[in-house]
Amino acid sequence: MAGGNLDAFKAVASGEKEIDVNKKVKVGIIGTGWIAEAHMQQYLQMPDVIITCGADLIPGKAEAFFKQYDGQNGFDASSVKCYPSHKAMLDAETDLDAVSICTYNATHAECAIYALEKGVNVMLEKPMCVTTEEALDIMKAEKKSGKIISIGFQPRLDPNMQKIKQIIDSGVLGKIYYIQTGGGRRHGIPTPFGTTFIQKDTGVIGAMGDIGCYSLDMVLNAIGYPKPLTVTGYTSNYLGTDPHYYEMDGKPAEYADLFGVEDFAAGFVRLEGGIILDFRIAWAMHLDTPGDTIIMGTKGSLRIPSTECWNGSLDDPMVIYTEVAGSQLQTTVPKIYVDPQDPKQSNFYKKIRSFLDAVKDGGTAPVPTSQILYNQAIIDGIVTSSKLGKEIVIDLPEV
Ligand SMILES: NC(=O)c1ccc[n+]([C@@H]2O[C@H](COP(=O)([O-])OP(=O)(O)OC[C@H]3O[C@@H](n4cnc5c(N)ncnc54)[C@H](O)[C@@H]3O)[C@@H](O)[C@H]2O)c1
User: Fold this and answer.
1) How far apart are the C-alpha atoms of 80 and 33, rounded to whole Å?
2) Does ligand 1 come within 6 angstroms of the Cβ of 35?
3) pLDDT tens, residue by residue, 359-379
4) Per the structure, how many domains does the chain have?
């Protein structure tokens, strides 16, 4: 068989669709910081994408961002128009098909709503936003616009993460009644490119918006995103506000004064269907891990080992615990190999590609707001409950 045919066979076997290069998608990037690089690298691999514009609040940042890709895969940085804000860009660029919103958490909602109001499809970085109210406003704008908005939870595209849902859907665990999830880092407050993650006015939420939302998505997606009913939450920031933490890293001790979000959070959540969700997440702690993820069911349970840097990946294989014919069994689920040399197997590539395919085909959002609303409501519930010092009821209106 000739190489080309074999490639076509592999593409079909892996479910990868052929890209219609005659149908181009005009894309703009809002916020040209750290994560925008990951978006740009994917777009540059896609023959049907034209990057027409970008925006950043910091003068000259967008221009410098695009310049570093000049000449890569035929990309011409001088053809990209740069703007000082999302509003300026969306007001001027009237024929955009889609935007990647890569701004810090505080401006996710305003950028997404403005883009939708302008009739532009949105790939919005996680977390969806910072409050339940903002999430509902985004959904209203989405409904009114008829456009697609997909939230950037790329671990969902990892075949090992997808296996969790497949295991639950197979019925081997029976009815799910208790889930413990979360995890975290012993020393991992993210300040590699500045302090937007840790300042209140830019990050608004800390460890929960950075990595906690991944843990929630992993288990909630696996069990079909049941509605959260009540939340008892706790947040703290003892380590993030201690100058000693940054001295250990060779970072400015003043970061301690700038730290305005949570470095640890815990929540006890009642979900529809009689399921309990016990959640904890840490950016920093005097501990290796606050525990593996465990999903307990009436016929079996699943253990998903925690990782050092919780970001929606798997180091050690998962284990299923069951009972068969009176014997207690433990089955190791083989890890699925993902070729790190193949850029198309990266979760980021799949996240952007699945969004673009939906935009082109008039499909639905790969990671829909209707699900992530619940993720956001749990985070918001933990913040509110922690402030009030008591359990709160989550009451979500229909959008
Ligand atoms: N999916 C992932 O793996 C992943 C990884 C890291 C970060 N993120 C998410 O990406 C987002 C950005 O993180 P980052 O580390 O790139 O932040 P960053 O601070 O490096 O970059 C954000 C940029 O957005 C710009 N900006 C803010 N509001 C704007 C507006 N209204 N118009 C134009 N530009 C605006 C800022 O000036 C800044 O340059 C966060 O919400 C974070 O949670 C996702």
Assistant:
1) 17
2) yes
3) 999 999 999 999 999 999 999
4) 2
